[in-house]
Amino acid sequence: MTEWLIRHFVKDAEQTDTPAVRTRYGQFAGIVGICCNILLCLSKGAIGLISGSVSIVADAVNNLSDAASNIVSLLGFKLASRPADPEHPYGHGRYEYLAGLVVAALVLAIGINLVISSVQKILNPEPTEFSAALVVVLLLSIVVKLWMMTFNRTVGQRIESDTLEATAIDSRNDVITTAAVLVCACISQAAGIDLDGWAGTAVGLFICWSGVGLLGDTISPLLGQAPSPELVEHIHQKIMSYPGVLGTHDLMVHDYGPGRQFASAHVEMAAEADPLESHDLIDNIEQDFKTNDGLIVTLHYDPIVTDDPEVRDMRHWIAHAVQQIDPRITVHDLRCVPGPTHTNVIFDCVRPADLSLSPEELRQRVAKLVQDHFPRSIAKITIDESYVSSHQ
User: Fold this and answer.
1) Cα distances (angstroms) measured from residue 171 to each of 65, 73, 387
2) Can you say how many angstroms the Cα of residue 71 is from the centroid of all Cα atoms in its chain?
C-alpha cells in the first residue's frame, strides 16, 4: 500500500536526491499522519470518555499530539525547502532537524502528562467500563499504527529523514502503549482488578524514555555531529581512486540539513608533476562529488616530494611508528630542511579526539620517536585534531 500511495501522490518519486521531491515526500507523509491520527484520536476519545478509562483517554490525547507532530513535520519540510538567501547562504535545511526536535519534545511532554494523570487514577480510582467497542477501537488503532510505523520508516529511509524516522519510532511506541492498554483492560475485566492507572503509568514512562532518546538523536546533528563512518570511507575511497593521488587528510564535513552537506579535504600529489595537470585532476574530483553524490567538496593540493628516497623512507617509517602510540594516528605534509648540524623534519600529526594524550604530550612522544631513530634530526610537529569518526 505504501508503494501504491507513493506512486500516485508523490511526483517524480524516484528522484529522492532532488530537494523538491524530498519536500513532496515529507509533506505527503505529514498529511497521511494528520488524517490517521485525528481519526484515531476521535474514536479513542469517544470510547475513553464513555468507559471512563484514563489510559484510553490519554492514548487519544497521545494521538492528538501525534497529529500536532505531523503538522510540525509538515511545516519543517516546507521551511527546509526554502532556497538559500544572502542571510542563509547554505540554505534552510536545518529546519527539518528543528522539526524533529519539536516532535521529540512533544513525545516527552505527552509521556510526562500521561504519568501524572495515571498516578492520579491510582490514588483516586474510578470504575472503568469494558465493552466490545473498546476492544475493536484499540485493535483498529494497533493495526493503523503498525502501518504508519512501516510507512514512515519506508519514506524516512528513502529520503534519509531523521524527522520521519523519529515519527516511525513514535508510531511503534503507540503500538506498544495501545497494546498494553488493551491487555490491561482485558485482565481487569477478567480478574476484577483495576489496572487502568498502572497501565497508564507504565505506558507514560515508556513514552518518556523514548522521548529522551529522540531528543538526543535530533539534537546531535544540530550540535555538529561527526559524519558517518560510511560517508567518510566513501569520500576517502573516491579521492584515492584517482591516479596520481598519493593520500588525503584533514577531511571536514559540514551538515546544513539533509541533502545539504559540504566537505573539504587535502589531497597529496607528487610535487614533481605538472601543477596544471594536478589542478585539473582536483577539479575533476570535485565535480565528480557534486554530480554523483550531491556533495560540494573543496580540495586543497598538497605537493609531496617523491623522488628523494631518503625522505620517502623517513615518511614511511614515521607513519608506521606513530601507530604504536595509537593505530588511528596519521601523519602528513612531511618535508625535510637540512642544515650543517641537523635536519628539521617538519610534519603534521592527526590526533584522534578521544586520545588520552593531550596535544602537547602527543607532540613530545612523537618527537622522541623520531629523534631516537634519526639522531641528527629535530622534529617540528603540528598537532591536528580529527573531525571525522573514522580512520582514513
Assistant:
1) 12, 14, 35
2) 22
